[in-house]
Amino acid sequence: MRILVFQHVAVEHPGIFRDLWSEGGHSMDQIELDEGDRIPDMSSYDLLVAMGGPMDVWQEDIHPWLVLEKAAIRHWVTELKRPYLGICLGHQLLAEALGGKVTTMSRPEVGIAEVELTEAGRRDSILAGFGPRLETFQWHGAEVSMLPEGAEVLAFNEACAVQAMRWGAHAYGFQYHCEIIPTTVDEWKRIPAYKASLVEALGKEKAGKLGEAVAGRLPEFRRSAEHLNLNLLKMIQAAIEPARNSV
Q1: Is 63 a catalytic residue?
Q2: SS3 label, residue 141
Q3: Which of 53, 76, 95, 115 could anchor a disulfide with 144, C-beta 3.0 to 4.6 Å?
Q4: pLDDT in tens, 119-141
């Protein structure tokens, strides 16, 4: 399988999924859009992944490449009809690219938080085998406030009504971070916008202890990522096999 990854800041990469995909023998091309990398011809890829970043989806005047990225995502999911995975900003970009709306939250959601699966989420193959409630890692100050037409909410919590969504058969967005690794918190705290939202959400004392709190949960977060990855690969395989067999 060939995977194309859109990145918006170097430290927000696919994290644990890089290891899982490499171990599975899959190839991955990472495109750093914020550094001027151009979007390649996507026709040979099986999965498009869009990661998080400190910018917002509406900041096209500051980050003009967002226009091209949204167009590429829209082309991928509506015309090529291939599997898509968006995390945090990538989740929000999916919504915006398809006609939804993303707005600033009244208060950032940062740290460890529980989300609850909707009825659609409990039925969806991407979340098969997960319980009705999941402990997740969050770091965002914007949210999907209006779904694109045809989208379904798969998970929610009190802070954010769209924690996970699906559009069509193979396009998924997750507001929470399922990719984290041991270096995540320390690396993200060095980004000024992230540090500011961290302190705003948790206060200085709790903000300083976030890395320690996350470290104790990393084994469980890894197991969740491994399970999500298995579900994702099964979905992708089911999507691409008919196309390959028809060639």
Answers
A1: no
A2: strand
A3: 95
A4: 999 999 999 999 999 999 999 99
